[in-house]
Structures are given as C-alpha cells and as structure tokens.
C-alpha cells in the first residue's frame, strides 16, 4: 500500500455504521454529510420528522448512504427501541455521536424547573440513555467510538445560561468517566466543545435574549479567527475522533471555537 492510500484509510469510515443524534440540522447534519462523504452509513436520529426526512433525502442526493429514525432521545424506551432497530438492520453500531442539544438563556431565578429539566434531559440525560443501549452492541462487536457534543461553556461559565452550563460541564466529565469505564472494551469516548456555530440554535439565542440578530452574530465573531464557526468546522473534529486518526485518543476534550477560550 502506498503512503497516500494509507493516509486516506486513516480518515475513511467506509462501511461504518454511525448514529448521529440531532442529525436533522446544524452540527448534526453537517457531520452526517461529512461522514457520508468518507463512506459511513449514517443513521440520523431526530425528534423532528419533517426535518429528518428532508436531511435524509439531501444526503441521498449526493450518493450518501443514510437512514432516518424518529426518536425522542430523552425517553428511555425510544432510545432502547432505536438502538435495537439499528442493530437489527445493520448488524453492528460502530460510531455514536451524541449531539442533540438545546439552550435556554436564563439565570437561576428566571429559569423554571420545567426548563431546567428539559435542558438537562436533552443535553445530558440523552447521552446516558442512548449510550446505555448502544454500548452493549459495541462490546458485542469488539469496540466502537463515542463522541459527545459539549461546549466551551462546559469548561467555563457563561451569562444567563445556568442549565446549559450545568449540562455541558456534566457532558465533559461524563465523557471522561465513560472513557475510563470502557477503554477495556476497545470503546473510545471523546468530546468536542464548539464555540458559537452558525446554526438555528445560535440564532434562537439572540431571540431568547431579545437582541438584534445581526449585532448578536457580529458579537459572536469577536474571537481570534474573526468569524462564527460553521457546522463543517465541528464535523471535521468529530471525524478525527470517529476515525483511525485518533486510535490512541480517549477521554479527550477538543475545543473548536476559533480561539474564543484562548
């Protein structure tokens, strides 16, 4: 094998079965496209059936292999059934990208109990639930890769985002704990921590805060690289963790934020 082919094999996901939660839009969709480009069979999971079906058709449109499953990742039974359905259809699960996320821009007094529960359930509990049901299948097949989406605000605090910061801090340390527990099973667990990424979620933050969207986005670009991130910026980092390029990397936290935390 020549050097070029050997290098390409390091980033190839040819034949890998990759589950992506929150896969209908934003970082999830951007990563799904990147995975499909390098040969993965992508399993999109999202609660929004209309967006999920549209994302599925879009990936099929450029020849990608993909299937959409509607799933509420905050519900144990949904996660159990989806993991089982994916395994029964494809015979294995190689990669799990726990990416579904929400944010409520409120401080402790402003935030309701229901909002606290919703943010923690989507951002943190869902990682536990789907991993709980997927990991046994990975062990059965000799290993796997799990990547969790955290945030820069999982490493430092942020204003009026108490539940989000709590969930992201939990995601960071959950990643480390899972890496310790399952290294013996050849399962690598890592975390990407994006900064502000140009997605619906970021634009919704401006609305929640009652700020002008254009000015909000300009503020979000005030970082060393002088721009807001794009979904593909994060997708490339996720690909690193999902591929053989990171074969000796587990329990790691990779900040992808244009230098915002520098």
Distinctive features:
single chain, alpha/beta, 2 domains, seven-stranded parallel beta sheet, 7 strands
**Name of the CATH first level of the largest domain:** Alpha Beta
CATH fold-level topology of the largest domain: Rossmann fold
Q: Count the helices. How many?
A: 9
Radius of gyration: 18 Å
Secondary-structure element series? HEHEHEHEHEHEHHHE
Reported for the largest beta sheet, the result is: 7 strands, parallel
Helix content: 40-55%
CATH superfamily of the largest domain: NAD(P)-binding Rossmann-like Domain
Give the class from helix and strand content and strand pairing: alpha/beta
- Strand line-up of the largest beta sheet: 3-2-1-4-5-6-7
Uncertain ranges = none
Number of strands: 7
Strand content of the residues, in percent?
5-15%
Instruction: Kindly report the average pLDDT value.
Output: 97
Descriptive report:
With 262 residues, this protein is an alpha/beta fold. The protein folds into 2 domains: 3-194 and 230-255, Rossmann fold (3-Layer(aba) Sandwich); 201-228, no CATH class. It has 9 helices and 7 strands. It has helices at residues 3-11, 26-37, 49-61, 76-90, 113-140, 162-182, 200-209, 213-220, 231-242, and strands at 17-21, 41-46, 65-70, 95-98, 144-149, 187-194, 253-256. The chain has a 7-stranded parallel β-sheet with strand order 3-2-1-4-5-6-7, sandwiched between helices.
């Amino acid at each position: 094998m020549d050097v070029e082919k050997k290098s390409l094999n390091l980033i190839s996901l040819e034949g890998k079965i990759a589950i992506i939660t929150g896969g209908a839009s934003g970082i999830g969709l951007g990563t799904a496209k990147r995975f499909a480009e390098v040969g993965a069979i992508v399993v999109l999971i999202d609660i929004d059936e209309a967006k999920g079906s549209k994302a599925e058709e879009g990936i099929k449109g450029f020849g990608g292999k993909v299937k959409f499953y509607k799933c509420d990742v905050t519900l144990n039974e949904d996660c159990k059934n989806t993991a089982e359905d994916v395994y029964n259809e494809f015979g294995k699960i190689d990669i799990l990208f726990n990416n579904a996320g929400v944010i409520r821009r409120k401080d402790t007094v402003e935030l309701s109990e229901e909002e606290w529960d919703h943010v923690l359930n989507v951002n943190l509990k869902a990682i536990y639930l789907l991993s709980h049901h997927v990991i046994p299948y990975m062990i059965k097949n000799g290993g796997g890769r799990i990547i969790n989406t955290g945030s820069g605000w999982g490493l430092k605090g942020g204003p009026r985002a108490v539940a989000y910061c709590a969930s992201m801090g939990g995601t960071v340390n959950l990643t480390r704990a899972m890496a310790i527990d399952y290294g013996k099973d050849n399962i690598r667990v890592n975390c990407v921590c994006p900064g502000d990424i140009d997605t619906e979620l970021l634009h919704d933050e401006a609305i929640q805060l009652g700020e002008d969207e254009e000015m909000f986005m300009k503020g979000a670009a005030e970082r060393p690289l002088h721009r807001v991130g794009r979904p593909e910026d994060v997708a490339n980092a996720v690909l690193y963790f999902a591929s053989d390029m990171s074969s000796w990397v587990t329990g790691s936290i990779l900040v992808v934020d244009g230098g915002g935390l520098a």
